[in-house]
Write a structure and sequence with these properties.
Largest sheet: 6 strands, parallel
Number of strands: 8
Shape: globular
Strand order of the largest sheet: 5-4-1-6-7-8
Radius of gyration: 17 Å
Structural class: alpha/beta
Length: about 230
């Protein structure tokens, strides 16, 4: 158990705090249409990879799907972002997300949102949901040199700005294995999974989740439990 008090919560967006009802996969399908990927087995293979790598930077995913073809990766990523942005009004806050933000901040814990989306898509989500005033920071891979999850860069950048550059004062919540790996790589003592998104309990635990929650609303209680263990 960490001996540091938690001062920063880093939460993922889609699947963790934001419900998009399959919009990521719909936008990916639109991107494959743009790239003229028509063969059924190939589309299924690529879609499976997208599910497995949920949470990672989208341009990184497209580069893996189209190795050595940067033009196709960029075109696919642009088409994905355009398709997602055009449907952003279909997204909504997951139950308890906004209340969790308020509870954490009222108890002295800063709130940072991290995502594999581009800044334009993240901004569209923040505007649509009305979240700009509810969180302290949002970060995308492009703001940390381009490395998204499972690298720890976004979490470490948030810690540098909001937790005195101390990863042991950070708690992480995400719905994918890449969220978990990112938090562990950063050195966060609490790296919790949540069952409202892409990956199930087994996948989250296999990735190393320190706890698996049913929903984001449970996250403040997890941090309170940690605080009680520090100061019984």
């Amino acid at each position: 158990m960490s001996t540091a008090a938690i001062r920063l919560a880093c939460l993922d967006m889609a699947g963790t705090t934001v419900a998009d009802d399959g919009l990521v996969l719909a936008a990916f399908s639109a991107a494959l249409d743009t790239l003229r990927v028509t063969e059924t087995a190939e589309r299924e293979r690529m879609t499976e990879y997208v599910v497995d790598t949920m949470g990672e930077s989208k341009i990184t995913v497209f580069r893996a799907l189209f190795p050595g073809d940067e033009q196709a990766a960029q075109e696919g990523n642009a088409a994905f972002e355009l398709a997602y942005g055009a449907r952003v009004e279909l997204t909504r806050a997951l139950p308890g997300a906004e209340e969790a933000f308020a509870a954490l901040r009222s108890e002295g814990v800063a709130v940072a949102l991290t995502t594999g989306f581009s800044r334009a898509t993240a901004d569209a989500l923040l505007e649509h949901l009305g979240w700009r005033g509810l969180v302290d920071l949002s970060l995308t891979p492009g703001e940390v040199g381009g490395r998204g999850r499972p690298h720890p860069d976004m979490i470490l950048a948030a810690a540098a700005r909001l937790a005195d550059d101390e990863p042991r004062a950070v708690a992480v919540l995400g719905d994918t294995a890449s969220d978990i790996r990112s938090g562990l790589a950063a050195g966060a003592p609490i790296v919790a999974g949540v069952l409202t998104g892409a990956h199930d309990r087994a996948a989250l635990l296999a990735a190393g989740a320190t706890r698996v929650l049913g929903q984001v609303a449970e996250f403040p209680d997890l941090l309170r439990e940690h605080a009680r263990q520090l100061h019984p």
